[in-house]
Amino acid sequence: MHISITGDLGSGKSTVAKEICRILGLNYLSTGLIQRRLGQEKGMDTLEFNKFANNNKEVDEYIDQQLKDVNDKTESYVLDSRLGWHFVNKSFKIYAMAIDEVAATRVLMDGVRIGEPSSGDLQTKIKQQKERRTIENERFEKIYGIKPSIFKDFDAIIDTSTATIEEVTSLLIELYQKHINNEPFAKIWLSPKRIFPTNNAVVAAEDIYFNNEESALKEDEKPIRCVLYNREFYLFDGHRRLSAALKTDIPFVPVILLAKDAEIVQDEKSVIAFIQDNFDKKFINEWEIAHGFKFFHYPTGDE
Fold this sequence. Notes:
Mean pLDDT: 85
Strand content: 15-25%
Low-confidence stretches: 203-210
Largest sheet: 10 strands, mixed
Distance between the termini: 43 Å
Oligomer: single chain
Order of helices and strands: EHEHHHEHEHHHEHEEHHHEEHEEEHH
Radius of gyration: 20 Å
Helix content: 40-55%
CATH architecture of the largest domain: 3-Layer(aba) Sandwich
Number of helices: 15
CATH class of the largest domain: Alpha Beta
CATH superfamily of the largest domain: P-loop containing nucleotide triphosphate hydrolases
Shape: globular
Strand order of the largest sheet: 2-3-1-4-5-6-10-8-9-7
Number of strands: 12
Number of domains: 2
């Protein structure tokens, strides 16, 4: 079985894909490198070339064929590609995500990345990456009629924001081996430092900010439950395990995503209503003080 890996720009997916190849002895195919080479030949950076590809379908046709050809190969590949999961019939489908600030910082510090648009500051780079993602998603929907759902179309979702390459690679290989052996495994793995607390998590502070991390970590393979609102994860329950993970600096926690945005999460209540009833920005400060860290950013909008 092949492995297809896609995800956020700056999530480290290419580095992880190459490391998986090295450890498992698989072949590597990157459509991103193909795209950058084509853009370089036309004197365009990645953002400019994405806009160019919107009106030139032969670009996608050429890149897509490289993926389709993998279906006829006898050796196994790791596909570093936005659409590898779609075009290759048998693959373990991975989505790598990263917090915007982390991802943009990685891209800015990458001195060997070919064809990257120039930007003078972090916020400009975040904006550029969001624009590129939007352009690509719109093109894929227009051409193929697909609108990927991260949490439905992929076998594993991993947040690389606070983990090393070795930690990410090790976990993905473990999940891949469980997948091919038909063993159960948690699908979503997030950095504990991206999950925002709710009233469910801070209602009894003296009980939550406890000192006995060991007892909670005995359940570390039991996923905590979260909801997603405006692309941010909020704690629904599992505060003891999340607190223990933060105190012991664990890079990932397994997560079950209950619902997102307007979907119903509890007692006919939507996620939007749950956040309105159970989230207050003062919780963030309490949570940060209790666990000795700072979130990379804070929720915006009407939470």
